[in-house]
Amino acid sequence: MERNQSIQNRKAEHIRISLEEDVSGRNTTTGFEAYQFIHQALPEMDFNEMDMSTTFLGRTLKAPFLISSMTGGTEEAFKINKNLAHAAEERGWAMGLGSTRAALESDSIAHTFQIRKYAPSIPIIANLGAVQLNYGYGLEECRRIIDLTEADALVLHLNTLQEVFQTGGNTNFKGLALKIEAICSGLDVPVGIKEVGWGIHGELTQQLEGMGASFIDVAGSGGTSWSQVEKLRASDPLLKSAAEAFADWGIPTAECIQEARQNGYKGTLISSGGMTSGVDTAKAIALGADLAGFGRSLLQDAVSSAGNLIQTFSRMELELRIAMFGIGARTLTDLRNTPHLRKRQ
Question: Exposed (0-12), middle (13-18) or buried (19+): which is 40, by Cβ within 10 Å?
Fold first, then answer.
């Protein structure tokens, strides 16, 4: 009971800190500002005939957007997840859940991750820290997570530095590759891998694909820095002081996407980490991503109402549509293959 309460307190603190404090990485960006679309004044297309739809995990999305894994485990988190689910269902976005370990360890909070009834048609991704495979979790627990959440896939997140800076964190990442491979081959739903804000480099994407990962979320730097979040939670003055040195740590999101494709990664690639607009999304897809994931930039709206989220989602969709129109890309395939993106001089 004490352990469950500790997890719930941590989840509540993460929400509060993300809403109230500046936890963005410093002296680092997503890298998207280094790119510019070449405007096409005569696109030879009808703005109303554009198609932004795509498929993911066997389901149709109206646009290539994903709500990144954020929260769960408290009643406030349940409210946030319900609002996110309602908005995602309305606008046809995919949705990731926060780490579902807490749901297995406490029946009383399992409902905070159970949002399928609010979002029956969209892809839902359950979530577990990969390091938990070294702390008693295995294929059976992963199956239970899928059953509990009615998710279409499981994502295993990699959060090495967060665990180091987190009081009582799980820091044994030794031998995880073989265990991840076993989950990928043994689970009945697709398994993906994601970072939490420090990025996945190109060579590792190819390795993860060989291990059986069905999709990869690069979650690069330029957005939330979990070393800064945990710095604000830390009671150990040594950890708190050391965390400051890692405010600029990580691989920029744009760089992660390019590296993945340059290293031959052929699977579904999700761009998250500091994404804030539909124009960011257009650049990410033009660089090689399939979907764009949004996290903390949605949190304030998610706390208030599904209606506010729907307005924000609609704005991002419109921004993407206008960016595509501006370069003459009628479909996402056209956008992915556009010759009209260049590095700024």
Answer: middle
Name residue, tokens 């031998």: 175
Q: What is the pLDDT of residue 6?
A: 65
Closest residue by Cα to residue 112 from 152, 70, 154: 70
Containing H/E element for 269?
strand 268-271
d(C-alpha 100, C-alpha 107), whole Å: 12
191-195 and 153-158: which strand pairing?
Answer: parallel
Angle between helices 306-326 and 278-287 (to 10 degrees): 50
Q: List the one residue out of 213, 206, 42 whose CA is nearest residue 130.
A: 213
Nearest to 138 by CA among 185, 179, 171: 179
Q: Is the pLDDT assigned to residue 295 strictly greater than 50?
A: yes
Please state, in angstroms and rounded to a whole number, the distance separating the CA atoms of residues 48 and 135: 52
- Burial readout 295-312 (b: 16 or more C-beta within 10 A, e: otherwise): bbbbbebbeeebebbbeb
Tell me the CA distances in angstroms from 342 to 91, 283, 333, one per residue in order. Answer: 31, 10, 18
Give the angle subtended at the CA of 78 by the CAs of 72 and 80, to the nearest 5°.
95
CB–CB of 192/153 below 8 Å? yes
Report the SS3 class of residue 195: strand
Q: Are strands 59-61 and 54-56 parallel, antiparallel or unpaired?
A: antiparallel
What is the CB neighbour count within 10 angstroms for residue 106?
Answer: 17
Asked which of 100-114, 225-239, 297-311 is least confident by mean pLDDT, the reply is: 225-239
Does the predicted TM-score (pTM) go above 0.70? yes
